[in-house]
């Protein structure tokens, strides 16, 4: 399992053109029209990171143009067991790639929030824990697990989030792995337990810097 993280602070507005030029496929072009260049950059960098991982896993460059989306908008490679996913928050973009379906990733920048406004999306057991701790750390742990699960399943937010208890892996039949990132909360969700993950930091100067988490 491979994860690549990139910081948008490494890029400039001019870098957007460079990133677009490096991309191998136009299939994953965003379905949304971006007003601000930084929003466009998040999308382009996420796609570039995905392409890098797929090529590293042996996918031929020509195969990248067969990439398509399911009915919920999740990109996939037809006929392949490889699965991948992208998330972004704050100044970071994260992408994950797995040789086995299914995988999802969610990244959230830690910040102050009004937890009471989110009761409708939490399972009763999750909400009880949140009320007991009133912890924003727990909030972002649950949130990133919940969203990474939906992304691993390839579903949108049509699912009733209140029915999902991320602390019951026997019920969800999925497994979670935390990626430690200062000032952020990040979780991977997959159909099998993960002992370790190859984490890479993308740098415009040094390309990829590796470590294991």
Automatic annotation (TrEMBL):
Statement: the UniProt record of this protein carries the keyword Endoplasmic reticulum: no
Keyword Transferase: yes
This protein's UniProt keywords: Transferase
InterPro entries for the chain: 4-PPantetheinyl_Trfase_dom, 4-PPantetheinyl_Trfase_dom_sf, P-Pant_transferase_sf
Domain 4'-phosphopantetheinyl transferase: 103-177
SUPFAM superfamilies membership: 4'-phosphopantetheinyl transferase
GO (cellular component) term, any one: cytosol
GO molecular function annotations of the record: holo-[acyl-carrier-protein] synthase activity; magnesium ion binding
One biological process term in Gene Ontology: lysine biosynthetic process via aminoadipic acid
Family per similarity comment: Belongs to the P-Pant transferase superfamily. Gsp/Sfp/HetI/AcpT family.
Record's protein name: 4'-phosphopantetheinyl transferase domain-containing protein
